[in-house]
Design goal:
Shape of chain A: elongated
Structural class of chain B: mainly alpha
Oligomer: heterodimer
Largest sheet of chain B: none
Structural class of chain A: mainly alpha
Distance between the termini of chain A: 42 Å
Number of domains of chain B: 1
Strand content of chain A: under 5%
Number of domains of chain A: 1
Number of strands of chain A: 0
Order of helices and strands of chain A: HHH
Chain lengths: 77, 167
């Protein structure tokens, strides 16, 4: 199966046809996508800044990745 | 009506038309806006999670705030500037967009919440600085901020579909 055929198959599969027919499924997914992006933006920024030595220098960088509680999703660093 | 007239005038100024009709500048500003929303919301969410006692509980709250707030504020500043430019590109369309109004309302409430927090609970931060889980009123401020940020992002994204649903 070529890439084009695969994409065509995905495009016309039942769930995606239903998704395009709905007025709100795509916007809701787009919103969740944006929220995840925002969370990652902040979380990755803080870790990267620590690696660059521009912030949180008082904390060992290893600790800046994890929380004592074991982490809770994108907010843990 | 006064606002409507004003935005109508604003949308007809040469720079507004130029920005609206530009192929790349508008998209570049939009890209910067999303990028800085990410910096602002991402760092603000970390602060809120610390206020809720959900992350970085081994670091004093004041330290988490002091380290992250500069990035949060810098992100906020560029976000507001680029957002204003996006508004300036078509003021009437934004003004009439129900999701834009919701977003602005949530933004004002988020600012008010942050300002109130700084004026009240944060004044006595020494009392709860080392608490892994801060007092209830601090957690309420954090939860409220998280909820308002979610409304801001959601309504911001939904602005694009307003015409589709209500047009």
């Amino acid at each position: 199966m070529s890439v084009l055929e695969f994409c065509r198959w995905v495009q016309y599969s039942a769930p995606l046809v239903a998704m395009r027919a709905s007025p709100w499924v795509f916007p809701v997914i787009a919103t969740i996508h944006l929220m995840g992006l925002a969370l990652i933006g902040g979380a990755v920024l803080v870790v990267d800044l620590r690696l660059l030595g521009w912030g949180l220098q008082a904390s060992p960088w290893r600790r800046s990745r994890t929380t004592r509680s074991g982490g809770c999703g994108a907010g843990s660093w | 009506m006064v606002l409507f007239r004003f935005f109508e005038w604003l949308g007809n100024t040469p720079w507004s038309v130029a920005l609206h009709e530009s192929r790349y500048v508008f998209l570049f500003v939009l890209m910067l806006h999303v990028l800085t929303v990410s910096v602002f919301v991402g760092t603000a969410v970390m602060i809120d999670l610390r206020l809720l006692g959900r992350t970085m509980t081994h670091v004093p709250a004041s330290q988490v705030i002091a380290r992250l707030v500069p990035w949060s504020e810098a992100g906020f500043l560029v976000m507001v500037v680029t957002g204003s430019l996006l508004f300036y590109a078509s003021p009437l369309a934004r003004y009439e967009n129900v999701f834009f109004r919701l977003k602005m309302a949530a933004l004002v409430m988020a600012l008010l919440n942050a300002w109130l927090f700084r004026r009240t609970a944060y004044r006595r931060v020494a009392d709860w600085d080392l608490d892994p889980v801060p007092p209830r009123r601090v957690r309420v401020a954090g939860a409220l901020s998280l909820a308002l940020l979610a409304v801001i992002i959601t309504s911001g994204r939904m602005m694009a579909y307003s015409a589709y649903w209500f047009g």
